[in-house]
Design brief:
Layout: H1 2-30, H2 41-81
Helix pairs in contact: 1-2
């Protein structure tokens, strides 16, 4: 469970790091010329704000699940082959 929590936090932080790039891309996309029938330019900015809120949550949940599954698989394999031994002096 600890590994899942750790990965969840790390991935959520990665999601926070991506927010400026998401917002910059949406802003630049809103400046692009539109063709007939295209949604208004503000749609890109509203979508980007939604993504900026959802990205850290999504990354955090996926990181948590990845950590849980990875820890479970490691524990299964460690029972079969003995795991990893570390000596600290």
């Amino acid at each position: 469970m600890q590994l899942g929590k750790m990965f969840g936090v790390l991935y959520a932080i990665m999601g926070l790091i991506f927010i400026p790039f998401i917002l910059l891309g949406a802003f630049l996309g809103s400046l692009a010329p539109r063709h007939a029938g295209a949604p208004p330019a503000q749609f890109a900015l509203v979508f980007a704000i939604g993504m900026a809120v959802a990205a850290p949550i999504f990354y955090g949940v996926m990181g948590f699940l990845t950590g849980l599954i990875g820890g479970f698989v490691y524990n299964l394999v460690a029972k079969w082959i003995g795991g990893i031994e570390v000596e600290v002096e």
